[in-house]
Amino acid sequence: MQFVNKGAFDMATAIKTVGCFSDKKEEDIHTWLRDTTFTARVFGLTEDQTARLICLGLRGPALSWIAMAFERVSELDLAEVTKSLKSRFYSSQKTLATLDGVLNRNNLAT
């Protein structure tokens, strides 16, 4: 009996579990990265495998951007991948909502 490579199986299952990020209006990169890295921990993935999982979970503009940003890099660094994605895809809608909430709170206090 031949067994399937456990690492490959876990990666495929992890991708299905976490879903994809494509920078749609309702998507939040921080939430998606949190969920993805948690899923990777549950599956026992290494930092290298987690960085790969993140890249494999990207679609559309997010995938195109990461491919261009890291095309000359031989190894993916988890910290650099997450930092770059957060910087590039931070939700401007969330920023506006947070700012609006703070301003409304300040107006109520005065």
Label the overall shape.
Answer: elongated
The count of helical stretches stands at: 6
Q: What is Rg?
A: 17 Å
Strand content: under 5%
How far apart lie the N and C ends? 74 Å
- The H/E string reads HHHHHH
What is the helix content? over 70%
Class from secondary-structure proportions: mainly alpha
Number of domains: 1
Question: Can you walk me through this structure?
Answer:
This protein is mainly alpha-helical and 110 residues long. The chain contains six helices and no strands. Mean pLDDT is 84; it is low at 1-5.
Explain briefly what this protein structure is.
The chain has six helices and no strands.
Topology:
Layout: H1 6-18, H2 29-42, H3 47-56, H4 60-69, H5 78-89, H6 92-109
Helix pairs in contact: 1-2, 2-3, 3-5
